[in-house]
Design goal:
Chain lengths: 119, 154
């Protein structure tokens, strides 16, 4: 069997970290220990934030639906309640999109759900 | 063919800027904090269905009659406004009554600032707030629309 030297793999492993650490500030991009810590933290944060992204967007949709709901004289909570009661199952992502791209359609949904839209 | 599911729309800076409106709000007799909440909402743009948190998507707000804003309870004398001159022992304090007399704009601005995000974007947003102690303002060229706040109890 061909001889495998340790250095080859070790260099590959370190170079992978070095590649990720490019563009960091100061010693974090050049000093080995700071580099490893920063990169590992960055990977953890990236995982967390991929999970959080789903929640962030849901929050944004709710804010937007609320704004659209208030324009027709109701509120987010009343709007969603009415939709649940009327068994209209449109998720918040689509509702928020309708609020922007098709205000009339949004209003129609509200009417369908039994909300008396104003203005 | 099925229509593609839309990804969430994010407004860009140019569009947000182009859509900016001007509102005039007369706060005479309105409770400070309750007026500030609604002013802050307009400034941030949370009243628009295409609100985008990372751009300044709000409108301009012109506040009139800042001097006549209402404070509940004993706050005219009890609510203190602080600033530090950076000299030793340079902490100055003034009660709301005095502030309303001389710097009524600062009373409104601080109340609204407390309700805005603290950061680079918040500092940009607060600049769209124009406050005047009387009923005159120099923004008629912007054709502001009169905005009446929802009055709430208290």
């Amino acid at each position: 069997m061909a001889r495998a030297k340790r250095g080859f793999k070790a260099r590959r492993r370190r170079n992978r970290i070095r590649e990720f650490a490019k563009g960091y500030r100061g010693g974090r991009a050049t000093l080995w220990k700071a580099m490893v810590e920063t990169v590992r933290h960055a990977w953890r944060f990236a995982t967390w934030h991929r999970r959080e992204r789903k929640r962030d967007f849901r929050r944004l949709w709710i804010i937007r639906i609320n704004a659209a709901a208030r324009e027709i004289g109701t509120t987010y909570s009343q709007f969603i309640h009415a939709l649940t009661q009327a068994n209209i199952r449109i998720d918040r992502k689509i509702l928020a999109d309708l609020a922007i791209s098709d205000p009339a359609g949004f209003k129609a949904i509200a009417t369908q759900a039994g909300i008396k839209a104003q203005a | 063919m099925a229509t593609p599911i839309p990804s969430t729309y994010l407004k860009n800076f140019e569009k947000a800027q182009a859509e900016r409106k001007w509102h005039v709000i007369d706060v005479a007799g309105l409770t400070l904090g309750r007026a500030a909440t609604q002013i802050a909402t307009l400034l941030r743009g949370k009243h628009k269905p295409d609100y985008t948190p990372n751009v300044d998507s709000g409108d301009f707000v012109v506040v009139l009659n800042a001097q006549k804003v209402h404070l509940t309870g004993k706050k005219l004398d009890d609510k203190m406004y602080y600033k530090h001159t950076l000299y030793l022992g340079g902490l100055k304090s003034r009660p709301a009554r005095e502030m309303l007399g001389t710097r009524s704009d600062e009373v409104i601005r601080r109340a609204v600032w407390g309700m805005l995000p603290k950061g680079p974007l918040g500092r940009v947003i607060i600049k769209k707030l124009k406050i005047y102690s009387g009923t005159d303002h120099p923004h008629s060229a912007q054709q502001p629309s009169k905005h009446t706040l929802k009055t709430m109890r208290g």
